[in-house]
């Protein structure tokens, strides 16, 4: 049986590249990719709230929008969202609404995480869709990108 964490490391490295781009642009460094059923990247996203002045400009939302556009459909059935930080309530809810098969995340977010730490939106039995969750893929590396960003902001 394949290790589920190892299976998503390459995709998480792509999401990390997006996160670094967000940080360089002055936004919180969170990145995401959406994989289709074959594992091909069909959506990429990074936080862009500062640039766009859009409160929904989270990496996950940006990546899901791009994936939906690529597929020509809002249903992302068969797809996997790979994101460097545990999704918040908005992004977890959007993942459920998009009918994603799976959410893979890196760093745990104990302050706002909604995929198991603070809340568990995606596994709420009252909802009609519950994606599989693979947690803490390259968690240390994902967390380090965030820690470095906020350390630089406090010093600067």
UniProtKB/TrEMBL annotation:
Zn(2+) binds at residues 58, 88, 91. Binds 1 zinc ion per subunit. GO terms for biological process: tRNA wobble adenosine to inosine editing. Keywords: Hydrolase, Metal-binding, tRNA processing, Zinc. Residues 6-118 form the CMP/dCMP-type deaminase domain. It catalyses: adenosine(34) in tRNA + H2O + H(+) = inosine(34) in tRNA + NH4(+). InterPro entries: CMP_dCMP_dom (IPR002125), Cytidine_deaminase-like (IPR016193), MafB19-deam (IPR058535), tRNA_aden_deaminase (IPR028883). The keyword Zinc applies. Catalyzes the deamination of adenosine to inosine at the wobble position 34 of tRNA(Arg2). NCBIfam families: PRK10860.1. This is tRNA-specific adenosine deaminase. The lineage of its organism: Bacteria, Bacillati, Actinomycetota, Actinomycetes, Streptosporangiales.
């Amino acid at each position: 049986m394949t290790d589920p964490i190892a299976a998503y490391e390459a995709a998480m490295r792509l999401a990390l590249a997006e996160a670094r781009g967000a940080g360089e642009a002055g936004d919180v460094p969170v990145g995401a990719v959406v994989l289709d059923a074959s594992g091909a990247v069909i959506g990429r996203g990074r936080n862009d709230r500062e640039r766009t002045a859009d409160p929904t400009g989270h990496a996950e939302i940006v990546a899901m929008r791009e994936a939906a556009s690529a597929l020509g459909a809002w249903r992302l059935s068969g797809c996997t969202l790979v994101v460097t930080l545990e999704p918040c309530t908005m992004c977890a809810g959007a993942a459920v609404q998009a009918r994603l098969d799976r959410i893979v995340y890196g760093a745990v977010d104990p302050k706002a995480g909604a995929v198991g730490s603070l809340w568990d939106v995606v596994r709420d039995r009252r909802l009609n869709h519950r994606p599989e969750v693979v947690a803490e893929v390259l968690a240390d590396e994902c967390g380090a990108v965030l820690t470095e960003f906020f350390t630089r902001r406090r010093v600067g």
